[in-house]
Amino acid sequence: MRMKDGSVSGAGAGGASAFAAALRATFPVLLGYTTLGLAFGLVLVDSGLPWWLSPLMAAFVYAGAAQFMGVGLLASGAGVGEIALMTALLNARHLVYGLSMLERFAGSGPLKSYLVFGLTDETYGILSTEEPPAGVEPLRFRALVTALDQAYWFAGCTAGALAGSALPLEAEGLDFALTALFVVLLVEQVLAKRPKSVFLTGAVASGLALVFVAPRNFLLAAMGIGMAILLGARVSSSRRGGGGDS
Amino acid sequence: MTRVLSAVAAVAAVTFLTRATPFVLFARRRPPVLVSWLQARLPPLVMCVLVADALKGVRFGAPGDWVPTLAGAAAAAGLHLLRRNALLSIVGATALHMGLRALFGA
Asked: Which of residues A170, A192, A214 is at a domain's end?
């Protein structure tokens, strides 16, 4: 529990302390988002895209992994449909993410849409653990946390893209940040104790797609093979164990 | 440029929809069994495939072709298992990868 000075009552003081509390809560994200955003901007410009796409994506997409993957797919010449499908699959890890936020966001009105839009991993981390300080309106605190986090990300993405297009920076190898990000997300899945058979399925599906499918179609083929294996195993195990019941 | 802008719009729309899904669909009832089943399996499967996709271009010729990438990936995994700090893992592994590339003149 974080105690304020004890004499917070005026509306003006409440506003100032909400901002101060949000600033304090988001401080660790400031470091992370500006650094990763900077890397994103540099990678985007390095892959031949115009610099202004970086702030545009920071404003309207606001998702690290999806932005990095989108730029990589655009650079490799993928179509819009494939990019949309891969984004949906990548974001599937958030599918029931908001469940624990349901009551915290309840009744937030029009601001609720923005809170949902801005629910990144890091913002989720803050909002699910940090309670608004006493005397601070909870909705105001949550909106400020979300907006500050996005401001950090926007600043990083913009600065990186501007630096990349202004200076002849050698971003050689910086796009490895995306590979590292995926490895980190995979380790997170391992630590989350997912069924081990899924990791084996992923490896087998990737191997099969690598051998039998053109590199262009690797992602969709590997995902399709993996899903087919998992669904097949689910159907056959429910047949064996379910005794004909639906 | 039309393709690029449509792709950005698609990524934005899909990302917002995935973030909104639990609030819209599961506000009043628990998610169905199939969703929980997918939730436990889709993310690890996708991450396996994405890591494989990122590494599939590696060729085992000169050391400069594969050492920076594989050492970088191993560093990302190792750092993350040790400290579980995403920024540290990503920045550290990328710095190692770039350093090794410069070293091998790739």
From this structure: A192
Domain interval for residue B11: 1-29
Q: What is the pLDDT of residues B20-74, one digit of tens each?
A: 988 888 877 777 888 888 888 988 999 999 999 999 989 998 998 999 999 999 9
Q: How many helices (H) and strands (E) does chain A have?
A: 11, 0
Q: Which residues of B touch A179 (CB under 8 A)?
A: 51, 54-55, 69, 72-73, 76, 97
Decide if B77 and A215 are in contact by the 8 Å CB cutoff.
no
Q: Which domain holds residue A87?
A: 11-192
Closest CA to B3 of A65, A53, A89, A177: A53
Interface pTM (ipTM) of the complex?
0.92
pLDDT (average), residues A9-35: 78
When divided into structural domains, chain B yields a total of 2
Instruction: Kindly determine whether residue A95 and residue B15, on different chains, have CB atoms separated by under 8 Å.
Output: no
In this structure, are B47 and B67 located in the same domain?
A: yes
Query: Which of B4, B39, B102 is opposite residue A49, by nearest beta carbon?
Result: B4
Give me B69's structure tokens. Answer: 């990438």
**Candidates B38, B72, B84; nearest CB to A176:** B72
Residue to test with chain A: of B6, B35, B41, most A Cβ within 10 A: B41
The answer to whether A148 and A23 have CB atoms below 8 angstroms apart is: yes
Strand, coil or helix: A125: helix
Q: Do B8 and A61 touch (CB under 8 A)?
A: yes
Measured distance CA(A225)–CA(A229) in Å, rounded: 6
Query: Do residues B5 and B47 share a domain?
Result: no
pLDDT at residue A122, rounded to an integer: 86
Do B38 and B10 lie in one domain? The reply is: no
For chain A, give the percent of residues with pLDDT over 90: 52
pLDDT at A10: 41
Mean pLDDT to the nearest integer, A175-199 = 91
